[in-house]
Amino acid sequence: MSGTEYGLRTTDYSAKRSNDGLRTTDYRAQRPDSAALAETAASWRSAYVHIPFCARRCPYCDFAVVAADEPGGAEIERYVDALVAEVGMEPDPFPVDAVNLGGGTPTRIPPSHLSRILDEIGTCLGIADDAEISVEANPEDWTDDRARELRSIGFNRVSFGVQSLDPVVLLALGRAHSPDEATRAIIASKSAGFEAISVDLIYGTPEESDASWRRTVDGVLALEPNHLSAYALTVEGGTALSRSIMAGAPAPDPDQQADRFEYVNAAAGDAGLIRYEVSNWARAGHACRYNLSTWMMGEYAAFGTGAHDHRFGVRSRNIRRLDAYLARIEEGERARSGREQLDDFESERERFMVGLRLAAGVEPGSIGRPFLASEEGSRLTDAEVVGLRDGRVVVLRPLLTDLVARAVLSVSPDDC
Amino acid sequence: MTALSRIRNFSIIAHIDHGKSTLADRLLERTGAISERDMREQVLDDMDLERERGITIKANAVRIDYAADSGVSYQLNLIDTPGHVDFSYEVSRSLEACEGAVLVVDASQGVEAQTLANAYLAIEEGLEIIPVVNKIDLPAADPDRAAEELAGVLGGTADEVIRVSAKTGSGINELLEAIVDRLPPPGGDERAPLRALVFDSFYDTYRGVVSSVRIVDGSMSRRDGVHFMATSLDVEAAELGIRRPALEVVDRLATGEVGYLITGVKEIDLIRVGDTVTHTATPTDQALPGYLEPKPMVFSGLFPTDGDEFERLREALDKLRLNDSSLVFQAETSRALGFGFRVGFLGLLHMEIVRERLEREYDLDLVATAPSVAYVANLASGEQVAVRSPQDLPDVGSLVSIEEPYVKVMIITPSEYIGTVMDLVQQRRGEMGEMTYLSPERAELHYRIPLAEIVFDFFDQLKTRTRGYASLDYEPDSYQVSDLVRVNILLNGIPVDAFSTIVHRDKAYPYGKAMVGRLRELIPRQLFDVPIQAAIGTRIISRETIKAQRKDVTAKCYGGDITRKRKLLERQKEGKRRMKMVGQVEVPQEAFVAALKLET
Question: What ipTM does this complex have?
Answer without folding.
Answer: 0.90
